[in-house]
Design a protein that fits this description.
This protein has 282 residues and is α+β, with helices and mostly antiparallel strands. 31% of the residues lie in helices and 28% in strands. It has two domains: 59 residues, no CATH class; 157 residues, Rod shape-determining protein MreC, domain 1 (Thrombin, subunit H, Beta Barrel), CATH 2.40.10.340. Belongs to the MreC family.
Length: 282
């Protein structure tokens, strides 16, 4: 109590000054329309900034949940695309486009670890057997092809990306339809190669490369990249094509795992194809 009294005695002049200033300002604001308007405008601006900051903080902490909802919504919409469905009745041209059965399903996942600078590169995603994932399923992102599921645990899976040796994704030129295999020479994480296309087929620079869909792992038409360089292979009637891939594996965060519900049927049927006699003789 003594300290409080001593404080008031020590600063009594300053406290009286502050009190009189408050009284004067209050009277000024109360009887002056201009001053009152300025005070209210300033208060509104300060409150607006406070609410903006609070909203930004709230959105930040809710961002993960919001992103997950958007991923599942994107997966649901992807499953409705025509390339994700199988047309049942193909006999008549006038058959309506609604005559489709679901062929591809999509499951959203988050990348929790990945590499891009090794000879064979892998990424770990946060879904596994508990979510129905199986080895051999395709993986894409919102930008394009990513890889193929290589190992599956209960809650996680490991994906072998296209930045690997002999992953051999079947691709085609969007214009013209020429097809080959996507490979990677381990030099540049943004550049892959397409092999197996005859050099008597016209391939233009900047031609878009997409999945062919022949293996059943990926739907037809998923973006892969664009042709940035082409030259004939010396001594062979083939193109050496360089593709700038659509996905940047240095920053990838979210992917979709693809299930082809008809894949087992496709592989069983193709497994019944008899071997070539010439191959048997070798």
């Amino acid at each position: 109590m003594r300290n409080l009294i001593a404080f008031f005695k020590r600063f009594q002049i300053f406290l009286v000054f502050v009190f009189l200033q408050v009284v004067a300002l209050s009277a000024y604001v109360q009887y002056s329309d201009f001053a009152r308007l300025q005070v209210f405008s300033s208060a509104s601006m300060i409150n607006g900034r406070i609410y903006t900051v609070r909203n930004s903080v709230t959105k930040h902490f809710n961002l993960e949940g919001t992103n997950r909802k958007l991923e599942w919504e994107n997966a649901r919409l992807r499953a409705k695309l025509k390339d994700s469905n199988y047309k049942i009745d193909r006999e008549l041209v006038q058959i309506e486009d609604t005559s489709y059965h679901q062929q591809y399903l999509y499951l959203a996942a988050t990348v929790i670890n990945n590499t891009y600078d090794k000879r064979n590169n892998y990424m770990t995603i946060d879904i596994g057997k508990n979510h129905g994932i199986k080895k051999g399923w395709g993986v894409i992102s919102s930008k394009g092809v990513v890889g193929i599921v290589h190992l599956v645990g209960e809650s996680y899976a490991v994906v072998k990306t296209i930045l690997s040796k002999n992953i051999n994704v079947d691709v085609s030129m969007r214009d013209g339809g020429a097809f080959g295999l996507l490979k990677w020479d381990a030099i540049n994480s943004k550049i892959c190669q397409v092999s197996g296309i005859s050099n008597d087929i016209t391939i233009k620079k900047f031609t878009k490369v997409v999945t062919r869909g022949g293996s059943g792992i990926f739907p037809r038409g998923i973006p892969v990249g664009v042709i940035t360089k082409r030259k004939s292979i010396e001594g062979k009637p083939l193109w050496d094509l360089q593709v700038r891939i659509a996905e940047d594996f240095r920053t990838i965060q979210h992917v979709y795992v693809i299930q082809n519900v008809m894949l087992d049927e496709l592989r069983e049927l193709e497994g019944k194809i008899p071997p070539d006699k010439e191959e048997e003789d070798l």
